[in-house]
UniProtKB/TrEMBL annotation:
GO molecular function: oxidoreductase activity
UniProtKB keywords: Oxidoreductase
Annotated InterPro entries: NAD(P)-bd_dom_sf, Sc_DH/Rdtase_CS, SDR_DHRS6-like, SDR_fam
Keyword Aminoacyl-tRNA synthetase among UniProt keywords: no
Organism: Kineobactrum sediminis
Protein name: Short-chain dehydrogenase
Similarity section: Belongs to the short-chain dehydrogenases/reductases (SDR) family.
Length: 260
């Protein structure tokens, strides 16, 4: 406990899944947390969990696919706590988005320009907007940790979800570029690539792990991961334990990326 004591952390995608797990764990480790997603009721649940465990934080409902939404979030964090030590970029959509946005997880020839731009705005543009606003504060402080959530599909090819996989691949290289640009300013940037994590994002595909033979094709451990298993890796990157970890791409995928 106390690995993030007195640090201020912005966590996007905090309404569910990996983002929620990170916000709750960061708070338990002593950080003051500022959570964001589009849905206020989901954020309220996350904040209630933080408060129940004795943590401190606020939540901001905003659409981070727009510059205005990102500005709203950063302004709220600075107004409340005066600094940002950690930025966890966890906001994004995945296969579950297909249920309400048909065609969004298709191959290139099956994806309209409108759906392509929509997924890219949520999964990639949001990280650009947040980084460009937060990095100046971190540079002024002389330190900061940025953690970008990509995906195992950001480093492996896939027959569908091409907008998603393209955005996640871009996050990997954006992370490396942030490291190269801001390392001497004390700002670190690292990337976490989760595999099949039991979250609402993959709820439409999670049943494939019911079949052991099918599960073995996708993951040597033959199971999905949990949001907490990803959050523990993110705590390391957020903490001072990782001060020489910069530009790293960390796979938390049960060995999925090890498969040919």
């Amino acid at each position: 406990m106390g690995r993030l004591q007195d640090k201020v952390a912005i966590v996007t995608g905090a309404g569910s899944g990996i983002g929620r797990a990170c916000m709750e764990l960061f708070a338990r480790e002593g950080a003051k947390v500022v959570g964001c997603s589009r849905t206020q009721s989901n954020l309220d649940e996350t904040l209630a969990n933080v408060s129940r465990d004795g943590g401190e934080g606020i939540v901001v409902a905003a659409d981070l696919s727009t510059p205005e939404g990102s500005q709203k979030l950063v302004d709220a964090a600075i107004a409340k706590y005066g600094r940002v030590d950690i930025l966890l970029n966890g906001a994004g959509v995945g296969y579950s988005w297909e249920k309400t946005h048909a065609g969004s997880m298709g191959a290139v020839t099956e994806t309209t320009p409108e759906l392509w731009r929509e997924v890219m705005a949520i999964d990639l543009d949001s990280i650009f907007y947040m980084c460009r606003l937060v990095i100046p504060h971190m540079k002024e402080q002389g330190n900061g940790s940025i953690i970008n959530i990509s995906s195992v599909l950001g480093v492996k090819g896939h027959p569908d979800a091409h907008a998603y996989t393209t955005a996640k691949g871009a996050i990997v290289n954006l992370t490396r570029s942030l490291c190269a640009a801001y390392a001497l300013d004390g700002v670190r940037a690292n990337c976490v690539c989760p595999g099949f994590i039991d979250t609402p994002m993959i709820e439409t595909h999670i049943s494939m792990f019911d079949d052991e033979a099918v599960a073995d094709r996708f993951c040597p451990m033959r199971r999905t991961g949990t949001p907490d298993e990803v959050a523990y890796g993110c705590v390391y990157l957020a903490s001072d334990e990782s001060t020489y970890t910069n530009g790293s791409i960390i796979m938390i995928d049960g060995g999925t990326s090890a498969r040919i």
